[in-house]
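#structure-requests
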Amino acid sequence: MPCFGMAQEQRTIQLDEAGTLDQQISEEEKYSITDLTITGNVNGKDFILLRDMAGAKNVSTKTDGKLASLDLSGASIVASDDVYFAYAGMSYKTSDNVVGPYLFLNADKLVNLKLPVNITEIGTQAFGGCTNVSAITIPDGVTTLGMAPFLLCNSITSIEVPNSVTAMGIGTFQRMEALQEVKLGNGITELDNSIFVADDKLKKVSLGKNLLREGFDPVVFYTLVGIEEIVVDEENSSIRSVDGVLFLKDLSEIISYPNARQADVYEIPAECSLVGPYSFCLNKGVKKVVIPSTVGEIQYSAFASSNIEEFEINEGVAYICEAAFSGLDKCANLHIPASAEFIEPAAFSFSYGLENIEVDENNPSYASRDGIFYDKSLSMLLAYPGGRLDESYTTEPGVTTIGPMAFAGDINLTSVTLSEDINCIQDMAFTQTEALIEVYCMPTNLTDVETYAFLSETLMAEGTLYVPEGTLDFYNAQSWVYSVEDGMPFFAQVKEMEGEGIESTPASTDTAIQIYDTAGRKLQTPRRGLNIVQQGDRVIKVLR
């Protein structure tokens, strides 16, 4: 075992009696040994010395130890009353055939480590902070892995969990910066959602034959930004893998498409009837997804926050769940087929790249106008695409309701005018609208508004709600303007609009007057509500 820039000192020690390692290694030589093999029995007292030799005395105290290679494969861990590690009022002692909690914590001089072959359990953070250990072989016979046993083992590139392991703790492979491959054995029937945390370089995960579909949630995989392949044992009767993509055994549901798996076009197999929750969430590898006519349902957050640029949604999709297409940054246009009978609120929220939502004219439930998503009657505005660049918007005549989260997360609108036809604004309709600072409310008695319809830090900090003359007291008493229960003002200020007609605008025989709505569309004549009047270089907002 090379020890960089240092002379090696190798030792092989047979311990006939546990707890006697300090009798064979003197104080003078303990910091010079780089390669150590131990056979026989070792206990807590011996591990106090081994930790010291490997660079760690306690949680924060480092030593001058140089032990880089430790071979315990011919040794046995035995119980003792000696405390090998203490922290936060807790003391840890060795148990028979157990690599106890924190046993090698912060032993960062270790590079090569071989464990006793007869161990049955590896405890919480047993190897935490062993940043230079390059590989750990988990012996057959181990049944339990504790919480985050390999935390910050940043030099390990692959781990194989033997078939004997039946239980794995929270964050089993948490924050392993070099980890590229994990192979789970046949003893694993379920996975905790936190098994992989911040393992950004993990490319391949292999699943055993006994892992059940109901034993894990797809969120297990969707945060793995570097994952390219998920492999399933062919004998697994619950799930399967096709070209690295995870499905139910019969292919009726696509469970997880690896985030970093590259494809110009991915066609979901015709056997699929369900696009599962989070199945493409955060995906950065696919440019276009084709959803076949056999798919009837797209579930919660299926494509959320992905970089997919194009979707081909064929006739057959009937149900689109909440957040299914939320957070789209690259997709500008989305076409909804005639078959879509029910689309849950917020299905398209926070999609900063989405400019247009188009609906098939034969759809019985929904419609679009100018790329904005409505119900079929065009009376309820359901989604304003977050990628539109307009800085102002006025609700169309005939629109009476703004649906839940319809404008959620919009980053471009600075001004919104609610036309006189508006009589209902549902929950979180304008939540987290980062640029919105002006809301012009044309109705004189708007009461059917959810309390948190305008929940936005920007509006609370600097937003103004403009209300018709004579209605100031009425609007200040509304819970969506000021919540008495929470003591929360949803607008920095509420002002009455000073109405003035177009005729009051100074005229000039030399410079023509141009009139626009708040979306920037040129008008032939002023209409009821807020108008933008331009005369030469002068631009004013005028109410009529």
